[in-house]
Amino acid sequence: MATACSPHTISRAAVSSSSVKHSPSQSQLLFRSHFPNRRHDSSSLHITAPNPRAATKGRVLCSQNPNPTPKRRPDYVPNRISDPNYVRIFDTTLRDGEQSPGASLTSKEKLDIARQLAKLGVDIIEAGFPAASKDDFEAVKTIAKEVGNFVDKDGYVPVICGLSRCNEKDIKTAWEAVKYAKRPRIHTFIATSPIHMEHKLRKTKEQVIEIARSMVSYARSLGCEDVEFSPEDAGRSEKEFLYQILGEVIKAGATTLNIPDTVGITVPNEFGQLIADIKANTPGIDNVIISTHCQNDLGLSTANTLAGASRGARQVEVTINGIGERAGNASLEEVVMTLNCRGEEVLGGLYTGINPKHIYMTSKMVSEYTGMHVQPHKAIVGSNAFAHESGIHQDGMLKDKRTYEIISPEDIGYDRSNEAGIVLGKLSGRHAVKKQLEQLCYELDDVQLETVFWRFKGVAEQKKRVTDADLRALVSDEVFQPEVVWKLHDLQVTCGTLGLSTATVKLIDADGREHIACSVGTGPVDSAYKAVDLIVKEPVTLVEYSMNGVTEGIDAIATTRVVIRVENSDMVAGEISQRTFSGIGAGMDIVVSSVKAYIGALNKMLGFKERFPQEIPPESAERTPVSA
Predict the structure, then answer these.
(1) DSSP letter string over 8-61?
(2) Beta partners for 279?
(3) Residues 287-340: pLDDT tens digits?
(4) Among the four 7, 24, 230, 451, which has the fewest Cβ within 10 Å?
């Protein structure tokens, strides 16, 4: 598998990066008939710096840490943190993040991401919802065994958490999945807002309290010493009722109380006050950790999360790239880098145990595996986050980078593509390629390195200089891929204005047998996709198609992303019929790149189909979405 490393920090002078993007009209010219975040306002956080002068005294760059010696991560105790300024990072990318449409992950991909999250240093990994499906259960169990037992030299090992509804079957299933971890946790929830209790649960307040109390007690009775409880839709719940139910679950043995703004309706001062009120009015609150979980429906998830932390929460639930249900969740990189940048000065000294050098690599891995591109202007990890086009800005950057950058890209493990120290070309050998991959934070095994190297040689024959961005695209195309069911061997297309486009495709199946098909279409991609369909024989609908140039210039590598959906719901049980599947491809030829992406999506879909054959009853294969 591919893992990440801490890259060397290199100071260089380039000031901008650019990419070539195909407009929708250009992409649509390739085929026609095959188709069927804002800036957070934190002005309301009402946070006073311990030293008001410290907020402005000579601080021009977040990298200028006033305390250059990293603070030691406190020893883990479920319901207590020895350092009152330490904030635990609870990552729910593998659970809430996977609920994003098109973000389906295979078990192998989940394990790879979990390993990367551990390398990043997150305190808790919510690995999934074990009762949702057999595949989710096995994925969480595997992560608990492999990631949840790897202790680093400093004694760090992540908590592995499984989500469950407030019923015995869910809780027992979650425990059976996470119990293999050195530090297992059960996270259970039940709705507490009037609208949810009346229309969804159809239960009274008294019934909800009794269910919550008894299920937390049941989780503890299984031997789990770390139990988290969430009152779903707390942002719209009555405060007095929250104080009451939270007090009961504390008495039943809960160690963490998570306060979710499930529909993202609160604003920062309102959510911060909710945390403060819960801290002041809930009996037994001093014996537990308060957590936040903020959705991004109004674009305020990061601001709300920081407001909660400033008012007493010491765990924050976040996802990589902010992915998640609907508009997503609070972004790990935004929350962490805000605390890293401003925590000492204006947030009362709050800090985390995250190693920011791994942020960019983790963001890239999640983006590639889920197929969800990061918007260019996304804070911290967007492609424009460290790009400067305005003449005034460029002039300032040339004179002193601190004029327009408060964070150095090297802080998050990102080297600008036009600042490469090694220039790779067709004469470069394996050693040079390996060294450059290591500097870009990739550690490949021998087989992966050999594959990427020969892909590199093919690209180097066609363009004079292979950039870091080109290497990233090649790694994504070769390493960040699902298990192979079908593989593209050969492709030939004929197209133009004189007639219908024609494509001949040769695919290799998992047993090494060759399959050839020809088809016509309205464009080269359309005809190639139809030829693939003739071989694979799986009716799907193309939901989304996009293409980008990795670098500038006519010789740029093209990266393609597609999203497909199963066309016939009778094919398999309910688990797969409700999913969409994404695929990515890269190549010098845009049609080859497009076909690779399509086959990648098909492979991911077929992988899920193998785990949910038709003989599985729908009720046992159904995957239950959760929005706690």
Answers:
(1) PP----------EE--HHHHHHH-STT--------TT-----SSGGGGTSS---
(2) none
(3) 999 999 999 999 999 999 999 999 999 999 999 999 999 999 999 999 999 999
(4) 24
Phi, psi of 368 (to 5 degrees): -70, -40
Residue 506 burial (CB count, 10 A): 16
Tokens standing for 482? 């699902």
CA distance 74 to 80: 10
Cβ count near 197 (within 10 Å): 21
List pLDDT tens digits, range 605-623. Answer: 888 777 655 433 333 334 4
Q: Backbone phi, then psi, for 96, in 5-degree steps? A: -70, -40
User: Alpha-carbon Rg of the chain, whole angstroms?
Assistant: 25
Gap between the Cα atoms of 279 and 361, Å rounded: 36
What's the rounded Cα separation, in Å, for the pair 321 and 327?
12
Q: Which amino acid appears at position 315 of this protein? A: Q
Distance (Å, whole) CA 293 – CA 232: 10
Residue 444: pLDDT band by 50, 70, 90 thresholds? confident
Contact 174, 141 (CB under 8 A): no
SS3 329: strand
Phi and psi dihedrals of 229, rounded to 5? -125, 135
Q: Measured between alpha carbons, how far is 288 from 79 in angstroms, rounded to an integer?
A: 5
Give 385's pLDDT tier (boundaries 50, 70, 90).
confident
Angle between helices 239-252 and 268-281 (to 10 degrees): 50
> How far are the Cα atoms of 252, 260, 291 from residue 81, in angstroms, in the given order?
20, 21, 13
User: DSSP of 245-295, one letter per residue?
Assistant: HHHHHHHHT-SEEEEEETT----HHHHHHHHHHHHHHSTTGGGSEEEEEEB
H or E element, residue 75: none
CA angle 142, 146, 151 (to 5 degrees): 150
Task: Write out the two tokens for 524.
Answer: 């080269």
Q: Which amino acid is at 495?
A: C
In angstroms, the CA 408 to CA 418 distance is 15
Q: What secondary structure does DSSP assign to 112-135, as a single string?
A: HHHHHHHHHT-SEEEEE-GGG-HH
Least confident of 40-54, 483-497, 538-552, 580-594: 40-54
> Which pTM value belongs to this model?
0.76
Question: Residue 317's closest CA among 256, 376, 362?
Answer: 256
Highest mean pLDDT among 110-114, 408-412, 460-464, 607-611: 110-114
Among 143-152, 215-224, 384-393, 559-568, whose mean pLDDT is lowest? Answer: 384-393
CB neighbour burial string for 241-273, b if at least 16 within 10 angstroms, e if fewer = bbbbbbbbbbebbbbbbbbbbbbbbbebbebbb
End-to-end CA separation in angstroms for the chain: 32
Burial of residue 569, with CB atoms counted within 10 A of its CB: 0-12 exposed, 13-18 middle, 19 or more buried: exposed
List Cβ<8 Å contacts ≥24 apart for 452-456. 452/478, 452/479, 456/424, 456/428
